[in-house]
Structure formats: structure tokens, C-alpha cells
């Protein structure tokens, strides 16, 4: 089995109800961290890992996402005329060659596993990545690139993993692994959103996956799991006794941008990481903490 990974699926069909009313008219993935939409961080990470084909699983109301990746000749012309070359350069990050990007509709919200399965006809018999844009990961080497390197050694399927607080395990896919300290560990069991007190560990799956095409096959015909939804975790678990599943403890800081608190934390952290904003923002934050607001 070839181990080069060139296709990535981005499930972006969710309604984003946690961010209502903003998400009434703006797709969650277009909400901005500093000045880039969430989806741009996911695309940058995928590109840095060598991904060449970007497959978006969308739903009704997500057309702003499709427009975002279009060329914008009028805007570009205007920026060129005004000699705003840095902005022009920034715009280039958002463009995709025709044929590099595909949109598939998930007609009904039946869960993450179902969303991924909607892309099955585009995957054929090759491994593929899945990126959940809600999980934003700041890292020196992109998280997916770290995983692709590790995957070249292991094959099978691989999920990003990180320890979470024990009272948060019921919000994640949770792994049972055979080694508690190595960066890559073989998975012995995995369960989606275990009930409080039943989790096999506090090692959680984070939204980066490299999956064997067999996982697509397992998804076809898979019944509903946790929360009455078709779960990606359940399909991956079927590979534990097949070609193997590995948990990869990535290096980097993960922000849960599916939650308001996580989104705010990411906004502050990414703002502080920007040379043009750092001084003003950190002065503001220290004033704020001094005044005890
Ligand atoms: C999804 C997955 C879950 C994983 C999580 C990571 O859950 O189903 O296994 O731990 O992403 O963010 P969701 O957050 O979509 O409910």
C-alpha cells in the first residue's frame, strides 16, 4: 500500500449552533482568528504537509466557503493599482487551482462518519487525511506533516492524540493504547464520547487523521453510534485488528475553536504571535489584568 498522502477531506457541513447568532448567515469556518478564517489555518496546515487535493464536505448555507477559494480579479486589480502588494500576497494563500478543490454536499446531518463517507468516490484505493477545522493547532512543523512522517513508518491508520482533563473525556473519541509515553502508540481500543467514569484513559482523539481506504469501506453500512450519529471513531476502530491504528501525540498547541472559550484563547494567542499586533495587545491585556476586569 502506497504511503503518500495527497488527499484531505474537510468536513464542514456542521451548523455551528454554538456560535449563533453569528452562524445564522456566516459559516463557522469563515469566522476569523485575527484576520484569517478558521478554514485558512486548516488549508495552510494541509499544504505544509504536502496535500494536493482538498475535498470539502459541505451543506446548505455554506456558499461563502466556496466563494472564499475563488479567484477575485476585481479585488486583485484594485490592490495592484494601489500597490498594496503585501495584501495581494496574502490573497494568494486563498486561491486554489481549478481541479484541486472539490465540494460534496452532505444532504442530511448524520454525523462525522457519514460526512467523511460522502467523499468515498473521490478517495479510491489510497490513504487519505481528514482535518477538522475546529481543532486549530499551532506548531512549528504542521501537525499533519508530523503525522505523515510517523505514518511512513507505521502504515495502517493514525489519529492525532492528546491528554485531556478526566472530566472532559465524554466530549472526545478516547484511546486505549499500549504505551503511555511514546509519541506513536498502537491503539488497542477506541470509543466515541464514553460516558463519565467509563473512559479507558484520558488520551483523546484530536481532529487530524490519516486513514486507510479500508476505513471508507467500514463506514459504508455502519450503524449509528454515540449520540445516534454515524461515528468516524467506530469505523477506525474496526482497523485495530486489521492493518492497525496508531495514536500520535503531536507537538504543538491545540485550540478547540468549536467552543467559545477556545476560540477566544486562540484569538489572543494568535494575536500575540503576530509581530504587528503583539505590543499593543499585550499592553492591553496587562492593563486589563491590573485593573482586575
Ligand atoms: C469529533 C470526533 C471525536 C474527536 C473530536 C476532536 O467530535 O467525533 O472523536 O475527539 O472531534 O475534536 P466532535 O467535536 O465533532 O463532537
From TrEMBL:
<comment type="similarity">
    <text>Belongs to the UDPGP type 2 family.</text>
</comment>
<dbReference type="InterPro" id="IPR005835">
    <property type="entry name" value="NTP_transferase_dom"/>
</dbReference>
<dbReference type="GO" id="GO:0003983">
    <property type="term" value="F:UTP:glucose-1-phosphate uridylyltransferase activity"/>
</dbReference>
<protein>
    <recommendedName>
        <fullName>UTP--glucose-1-phosphate uridylyltransferase</fullName>
        <ecNumber>2.7.7.9</ecNumber>
    </recommendedName>
</protein>
<dbReference type="GO" id="GO:0006011">
    <property type="term" value="P:UDP-alpha-D-glucose metabolic process"/>
</dbReference>
<dbReference type="InterPro" id="IPR005771">
    <property type="entry name" value="GalU_uridylyltTrfase_bac/arc"/>
</dbReference>
<dbReference type="Pfam" id="PF00483">
    <property type="entry name" value="NTP_transferase"/>
</dbReference>
<keyword id="KW-0808">Transferase</keyword>
<feature type="domain" description="Nucleotidyl transferase">
    <location>
        <begin position="12"/>
        <end position="267"/>
    </location>
</feature>
<dbReference type="InterPro" id="IPR029044">
    <property type="entry name" value="Nucleotide-diphossugar_trans"/>
</dbReference>
<keyword id="KW-0548">Nucleotidyltransferase</keyword>
Amino acid at each position: 500500500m502506497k504511503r503518500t498522502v495527497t488527499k484531505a477531506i474537510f468536513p464542514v457541513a456542521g451548523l455551528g449552533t454554538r456560535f449563533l447568532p453569528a452562524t445564522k448567515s456566516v459559516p463557522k469556518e469563515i469566522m476569523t482568528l485575527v484576520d484569517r478564517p478558521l478554514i485558512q489555518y486548516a488549508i495552510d496546515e494541509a499544504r505544509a504537509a504536502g496535500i494536493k487535493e482538498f475535498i470539502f464536505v459541505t451543506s446548505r448555507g455554506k456558499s461563502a466557503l466556496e466563494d472564499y477559494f475563488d479567484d477575485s480579479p476585481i479585488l486583485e486589480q484594485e490592490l495592484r493599482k494601489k500597490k498594496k502588494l503585501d495584501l495581494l500576497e496574502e490573497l494568494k494563500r486563498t486561491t486554489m487551482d481549478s481541479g484541486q478543490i472539490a465540494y460534496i454536499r452532505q444532504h442530511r446531518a448524520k454525523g462525522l462518519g457519514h460526512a467523511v463517507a460522502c467523499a468515498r468516490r473521490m478517495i479510491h484505493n489510497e490513504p487519505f487525511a481528514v482535518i477538522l477545522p475546529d481543532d486549530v493547532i499551532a506548531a512549528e512543523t504542521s501537525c499533519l506533516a508530523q503525522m505523515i512522517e510517523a505514518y511512513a513508518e507505521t502504515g495502517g491508520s493514525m489519529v492525532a492524540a492528546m491528554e485531556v482533563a478526566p472530566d472532559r473525556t465524554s466530549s472526545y473519541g478516547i484511546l486505549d493504547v499500549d504505551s503511555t509515553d511514546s509519541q506513536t502508540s498502537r491503539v488497542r481500543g477506541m470509543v466515541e464520547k464514553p460516558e463519565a467514569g467509563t473512559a479507558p484513559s484520558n488520551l483523546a482523539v484530536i481532529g487530524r487523521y490519516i486513514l486507510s481506504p479500508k476505513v471508507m469501506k467500514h463506514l459504508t453500512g455502519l450503524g449509528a453510534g454515540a449520540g445516534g450519529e454515524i461515528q468516524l471513531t467506530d469505523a477506525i476502530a474496526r482497523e485495530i485488528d486489521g492493518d492497525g491504528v496508531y495514536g500520535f501525540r503531536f507537538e504543538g498547541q491545540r485550540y478547540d475553536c468549536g467552543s467559545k472559550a477556545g476560540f477566544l484563547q486562540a484569538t489572543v494567542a494568535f494575536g500575540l504571535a503576530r509581530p504587528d499586533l503583539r505590543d499593543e495587545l499585550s499592553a492591553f491585556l496587562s492593563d486589563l489584568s491590573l485593573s482586575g476586569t
